[in-house]
Amino acid sequence: MTDQGTPKKQVNSFDVARLAGVSRSAVSRTFTDGASVSEETREKVIKAARELGYRVNVLARSLHKQKSDLVGVVAADLDNPFRAEQIDLLSQGLLEGGFRPILLRGDPSTDVAELIGSLLQYSVAGVIVTSDTPPEEICRECLENGVPLVVVNKRDPGAPVDRVVTDFEAGGRLAFEHLIASGCRKLAVVTPERSSYSVNGRALAFEQIANDAGVPVVRIAWGTQSYDGGLAASAYVNKVRSEVDGVFCTADYLALGVMDGLRHEYGLRIPEDLQLIGYDDIVQASWKSYDMTTVVQSRHELCEITLNLLMQRLEEPDLPQQVETCGVSLIQRGTTVGSSIA
């Protein structure tokens, strides 16, 4: 007996590709008028589609002929205040530009390529990715179908898509220089166990600059980039506190947990016993209970650059690949004692 309360899973082109043993792009070409595909591949795809009951989305079939006003936004870590504000700003900017955003959540367990592939079925005008770096194959499929793809703070996927990156090397340098100016000489960097491209870049830049200056750095890689991850990491900071007088947390969300753990679980005073710098300048960093010194990457600038790249690509599809860098600054608050560095 069928459970009437359980909806049947909709078959998509990735299901067909898996059954046929071909790529997602091969399925797309099979159902696109005039596209090049071998007869053998076409037969495999058609057979798999019939077995699965796959029906081509009408919008997908017109992908080469027209575009909608939809723009896909693939994002992860939406509990992170920085990410939430970033997505809000991107959505506002798209609406003001006459587009309608579609938000898809790309958590670590999610196949980003599948999410982007599902967006292509809706004839989207473009795609913005702030979650994991998309695979090269799906990037090239977007290019082949004339769908602009902009990736934000992600490594080069191997395809010539437009990218926006924050200057994390400058951020690591600012954090190091400010801690040294504040009198710190024994440093630690706290970073998630599984770091993103940009977050890991911040930690590596900080360590490299410190190493060049002959200043020891203890790396504490633990948990996730979250408040709970910071709480857990605070235990390890406490264990090495005799070896550390300054801490750089590679994300503010993480730093909030580190601060609360050190103060409430271990009785440390900040900045008297330990100085601390975060990264992102989320709104909570300025709250009086934290008053955190932090490296600032402007969400407004980051989103403005992202949207500009998308609009330029829509207007001039044949432009060469563009990689834009978003600058950083540092704002001093109460978790350090040195002077602010511009």
Produce the secondary structure layout:
Layout: H1 13-20, H2 24-30, H3 39-52, H4 58-61, E1 70-75, H5 81-96, E2 100-105, H6 112-120, E3 126-129, H7 136-144, E4 149-152, E5 162-166, H8 168-181, E6 187-191, H9 197-212, E7 217-221, H10 227-239, E8 246-249, H11 252-265, E9 275-280, E10 293-297, H12 299-315, E11 323-326, E12 328-331
Parallel strand pairs: 1-2, 1-3, 3-4, 4-5, 5-11, 6-7, 6-8, 8-9, 9-10
Antiparallel strand pairs: 10-12
Q: Report how far the terminal alpha carbons are from each other.
A: 68 Å
Q: Provide a count of the helices.
A: 12
Instruction: Find the count of extended strands (DSSP E, 2+ residues).
Output: 12
- Helix content range: 40-55%
Strand content: 15-25%
What string gives the helices and strands in order?
HHHHEHEHEHEEHEHEHEHEEHEE
In one word, what is the shape?
elongated
Strand order of the biggest β-sheet: 2-1-3-4-5-11
The residue-averaged pLDDT reads 87
Rg from C-alpha positions? 23 Å
* CATH topology descriptor of the domain at 168-298: Rossmann fold
Could you give a short account of the major beta sheet? 6 strands, parallel
Text of the CATH class of the domain at 168-298: Alpha Beta
Q: Which regions have little confidence, pLDDT < 50, spanning 5+ residues? A: 1-8, 58-65
In quaternary terms, these chains amount to single chain
Structural class: alpha/beta
Q: Assign the CATH architecture of the domain at 168-298.
A: 3-Layer(aba) Sandwich
Relevant CATH superfamily of the domain at 168-298: Response regulator
